[in-house]
Amino acid sequence: MNLNIICIEVEKIARSVGEFLKEEQAKLRQSDIELKGTRNFVTHIDMEAEKILVEKLGKLISDATFLTEEGTVSYAEGKYTWIIDPLDGTTNYIHGDTPFTVSIALMKDKEIILGVVYDPIVDEMYSATEKGKATLNGNPIKVSTHNTLTNGYIGFGIPYSLDQRGEKILRNAIEQFRKCSFRIKGSAAAEICYVACGRSDAYFHSGLSPWDVAAGTFILKCAGGKSTDFSGSNDYIFNKELVASNGMIHKEIMKQIIG
Description:
With 259 residues, this protein is an alpha+beta fold. It is built from 7 helices and 14 strands.
């Protein structure tokens, strides 16, 4: 299997779905929007985009299984699994806002080996297939070299429901407002990639799903960054918690914000 060739095809697929999303956003009506839960929206466009991804990716690796957000195909364990989010940033999307992304990861025997994240509005294609080979629109990317919270540029997200620990983390973050800049962009996949390309220094969020983070964190790893869950372990893809950073600022965030 030539991962570089497969990655080129995945990029083409992500771009085609991204163009579909961009065209459909302009036609979106209020009646097209459904609620999966508080602040958790879905549209028929999410479903249709996922079906397109499943169909096209299924042709690349015939025996691969799928782990998807919208559940248009049943999950089954296999040697190869595509982990996909057809529309990461749905709340942004339905309000005519950005960013929103297409996120695609390929997992082999529980290890991510390929990641592609595409933002169709600004035409940014992030991809990676091996350590040290992360790219943005074909150009190599690396994490920032900022090594302290002071004057840091930090992304974060607020989960659909906040438990006591989540509230404590937000209070900890508020205490850092005077020393660094915080931003909420609304697309975990995009925000992790911003860390990968050095645009941001770190990103943290809880209540995430594998399709939110699988591709982005692999791209970040290949760009020289670091990801952990809130306990500092490597179970960040399936454990719903993520701290993604340039590596140098990671320990301070874990101490000052995650607590």
